[in-house]
Amino acid sequence: YLTGAFTGSLIGSDGTKSYAIYDLKKPLFGELNGATVEKLSLKDVNISAKDDTATLAKEANNNTHIDNVHADGAIAGERSIGGLV
């Protein structure tokens, strides 16, 4: 888990192989800041927080690009809950 700002690229497929991240218990990133995340599956997530949570990132800023990212599992909370962001 990255709690600070992620500014790089995470591509979950190279065209022949696809990759997935399993069993997340909290968002993978605290913040996406000008980042690119593509072709990624988040599987069997089980996230529970009172507020401000999601599967991929708590927030995305500054032209962050998210494309073809999927999550399955469960996410629960009381307020400010997002599927991916």
TrEMBL record:
Domain of life per record: Bacteria
InterPro entries: Peptidase_M26_N_dom (IPR008006)
GO cellular component, one term: membrane
UniProt domain Peptidase M26 N-terminal: residue ranges: 1-73
One GO MF term attached to the UniProt entry: zinc ion binding
Annotated signal sequence range: none
Name the UniProt record assigns to this protein: Peptidase M26 N-terminal domain-containing protein
Organism: Streptococcus pneumoniae
Upper taxonomic lineage: Bacteria, Bacillati, Bacillota, Bacilli, Lactobacillales
